[in-house]
Each structure stands twice: as structure tokens, then as C-alpha cells.
Amino acid sequence: MMRFFYDVAIFYAGIVTTTRITHATPAAAYGHCAHRDWECDTKIPESERAFGCKDLARQLVEDEPGRNINVILGGGEQVLRAKMNESKACVRGDGQDLVWNWMQYQRAQKRKYRYVRTREQLLDEGVHPSTDFLLGLFAPNHIPYDKERSLGPYGQPSLEEMTHQAINILSRNPNGFVEGGRIDHAHHDNLAKIALEEVVAFDKAIQKGLAMTNLDDTMIVVTADHSHAFSMNGYPKRGNPIEGVGDKTPEGFAYQTLSYINGPGYTIHRTTNNMPGTNSTLQTRNTWKDLSHLGVNVTSDRTQVHLAGFWMDSETHGGEDVPVFSTGPMGHLLHGVHEQTHVPFAMAYSLCIGPYETKCRKGGGGGGDHHSKGHGHPAGKTNGGSTPSIARNNNNLWLLTTTTVFLLAISHTC
Ligand SMILES: [Zn+2]
């Protein structure tokens, strides 16, 4: 989808994420790679390097469309430059400083560019009026969870703040991709409460996007690229805190409203003792830890690991359908559940780009009331009668997603 943006020179484009900028979902906006882990050169197997496979960080900085993306905000500084003692992000083996290379390229193109590393630098009032190309990397690895960010001047911005500044810069002709990427990470650790906090942070970014754009000419798409093995279960009473215990079994065993099918929460919720019981069924039940002390109140521990039904070191993604929500021009084409490849084509259709570039009536042309910005009309009948073309040009697009699959589906192997 993002490639469509760059096929049309008038578009500005941006990527905003709370993960490493080279992580699976944001990388799908600019990279072509056989494996999501090939974020820096040392992650590519020697045998594959011989085929000329290039790591995602270099693709972002050196190739089309990455080097022409106007706004790039996220984490993962270590992946692009020197080792920063971050064990969970890969370390370059080629000694390249890709941030420096990015600046050199922008300078050679005579562009107004800026590199920022802190919240204060990003929110500097002077940034957006004088910048056309902005690179911001705010952490060596992922940006910390929203409630764990450092809020000082040298800290990290929220997803909402990054979205705000991205739209400021892209407001000349914006298209963007915003990812609340750490919802996924909290789920993998069965940290339900942190996952919900990250959803709230994502929601604020959506609100910011809606407030700063005009739905007459801006399509906004909100979706997830996959689900998690996560469930709201039981019969909690109305008003019961969702992070707490939902109810008890007839025998008095309390259970949480939010639970996982698998993940580390299995062992954490089991006792090591085979506690005595009156029969084998009760004996088995007695190996579960007693949560009654939590009552219906929310534990103050936001890092409480929620129950999982099967042990895994990291909880898996889920396989069910995820919804797509959309508003703005042609927003009615995306609602509820769709086959995934329909989504980028609907977005391209709204923008009059890619396969639909010649199927739009361009602004200023004839045809009465339906040729300018805003709500276009499908070819054929309109209220005014027959209109043989579609007027949707000059629209903008913002895609907001919570995490990997559907954008990767339009990526290719390197
Ligand atoms: Zn995941």
C-alpha cells in the first residue's frame, strides 16, 4: 500500500510506531524481506547475504521508498547505528551509522531535514515549520510502554505526541501509518493491564488524528493486523473492574475476567504443591493459585500476569478475524471484516492511485459538483444522475494499526 503513495510524487508519507522502526509492521511499509528478523545485517544468514539480501534498516535509509518517507518516528536506534547495550535489539556488524547516512542523503537532495532523539526535540515548536523530512529514534529498542516512558525533556514522546507532530509536518499533503505496536508485546507476556493501557494510548493517537484532519478529504482506517489468544470471559457483574477477578466457581475458586489461551501466565498461576482434596477433580483444581484475595478489586500491580490455559514462554497471536474501521472518503468500503487484500485496494481507490489512478475525474475538471475534494461518488448513478467517472482526487489517507500480517502480505521476498 505504501508503495502506491510514493508512485505519486505529490504525496507526503510518514510512519509512526512505538516499536523499533525496523520491526515487522512498520518495516512492511518500506521493506521487502524474506524474514521479519532481518532488521540489521548480522541477522541475515551468511548464505542469504550472498544473494544480495539487504537488511531492513539499510532498505529504509538507502532504497525507495524508505529514503523518501517524510516522517519516520519510533524506536530502534541501535539497529541503525552503534551498539547501545540493548540486548533485545540487533547490533550492526558492518560498522555503518545509518542515521548519519540518512542525513547525508537528505543533505545531498537539498531537503529540509532534521534528526531528533528526545521528546523535547520532537515537540520543539520550530521542528515542523522548517522540516520536510524528519527522522526520530527515541530508544535503542522499542519505545517503553506508555506508562513507563520517561516524561522529562530527554524522555520519549507518546504515540499521540508523535502522531501530532507527524500530521503537523505532513499537513501539506498527508498520508501516514501509525502503529500502536506495543499492545502486542504486552499480550505476549500476558500483561493484560499494560496491553489495555497501550490501547488507551493508541486511542488517543486516533483521536489526535481525527482532530487534526478533515474527514471531507481524509480517509482514516483503523485496524489490527492480527488478534491474540485473549478472552474476556465469565460473568463479571456490571461495573466490575475488567482487570480484576470476575467471579468465583461454585467451589469458591476465583478467576480473572481477562485470560489467555496460552503464555507465561500458566505457571505463574499454578502452585507447586499437589494440595490434598477430597477427590481427584478437586485435587487438580487445588493446584491453581488462590486469587480470592483480589476480590473484585483491581490489583494495584499493573504488571500482574494474567491466567493462561497452556504454558508457553511467549503467548501466541490468535487466528480469528479482526475488524477494520474506516471513515472519510470511501470509508464505507471498509467496515467490519474483509478479506485482507481488499484493504489496500480500497485505500488506493479512495486515493485515486495505483490501479485506480486513471479511474478518477481530476480536480477542476468538468462534471458539476463532484469534482473537488471530498466525498467522491462511485461511477454510475448519483443523486444528480449519471456520472461516468469518480471524483476522489486530493484525498489523504491515515492508516492506524495495532500491530503484522496484512501489510506483510503485500511485501515480497528480497
Ligand atoms: Zn506479536
From TrEMBL:
Cofactor: Zn(2+); Mg(2+)
Binding positions for Mg(2+) per the UniProt entry: H23, T25, E179
Keywords, comma-separated and alphabetical: Magnesium, Metal-binding, Phosphoprotein, Zinc
Co-factor note (free text): Binds 2 Zn(2+) ions.
Gene Ontology MF annotations: alkaline phosphatase activity; metal ion binding
Organism superkingdom: Eukaryota
Pfam family membership, one: Alk_phosphatase
Gene3D superfamilies: Alkaline Phosphatase, subunit A
Residues that, per the record, bind Zn(2+): D184, H188, D225, H226, H317
CDD domains: ALP
Region Disordered, annotated ranges: 362-388
EC number: 3.1.3.1
Family of this protein: Belongs to the alkaline phosphatase family.
PANTHER family with a match to the protein in the record: ALKALINE PHOSPHATASE (PTHR11596)
Protein name according to UniProt: alkaline phosphatase
Origin species: Folsomia candida
